[in-house]
Amino acid sequence: MDAFLRISQFDAGHYDVLYQGERWGMSIRRYSSGKSVKVYAESLSSTDFISANMYMANGTWMLKPCEMPEEKVLAFIHGFTV
After folding, report:
1. pLDDT tens digit string along 27-76?
2. Dist CA 78 CA 72 (whole Å)
3. Are 28 and 45 in contact (CB under 8 A)?
4. Are strands 60-65 and 49-57 parallel, antiparallel or unpaired?
5. 9 φ/ψ angles, rounded to the nearest 5 degrees
6. Is pLDDT above 70 for 80?
7. 64-74 pLDDT, tens per residue?
8. Strand, helix or coil at 50?
9. With the CA atoms of 28, 29, 32 and 35 taken in that order, what torsion angle do they form, in degrees rounded to the nearest 10?
10. Which residues have a Cβ under 8 Å from the Cβ of 38 and sit 6 or more positions away?
């Protein structure tokens, strides 16, 4: 999953990022020795947010968005800049 490869470039922590011309606060948390990752981001100028979990299952990374379309999460992951 190349969304995981994109997120794996960042250490766990908080980042100020740009997405679609807006500033966002993004946090990345790692669990289970790195086999589970939580990505959460909030727009700093609106009420929009992104929330998803990524986890390793049978050697494959799975993306599980939290109550939002997968496409929205993937667009954010592939579209934000630091």
Report:
1. 999 999 888 999 999 999 999 999 999 999 888 999 999 999 999 999 99
2. 10
3. no
4. antiparallel
5. -75, -10
6. yes
7. 999 999 999 99
8. strand
9. -10
10. 27, 28, 29, 30, 31, 52, 53
Distance CA 59, CA 46 (A): 37
Asked if 62 and 55 touch (Cβ cutoff 8 Å), the reply is yes
In this structure, are residues 19 and 79 in contact, taking their beta carbons and an 8 Å threshold?
yes
Q: Would you give the DSSP letter of residue 70?
A: H
Whether the predicted pLDDT of 1 surpasses 80: no
Which residue reads 């299952």 in tokens? 57
Structure tokens at 51: 């929330």
Sequence-separated (6 or more) residues with CB below 8 Å from residue 12: 28, 29, 30
Dist CA 70 CA 82 (whole Å) = 22
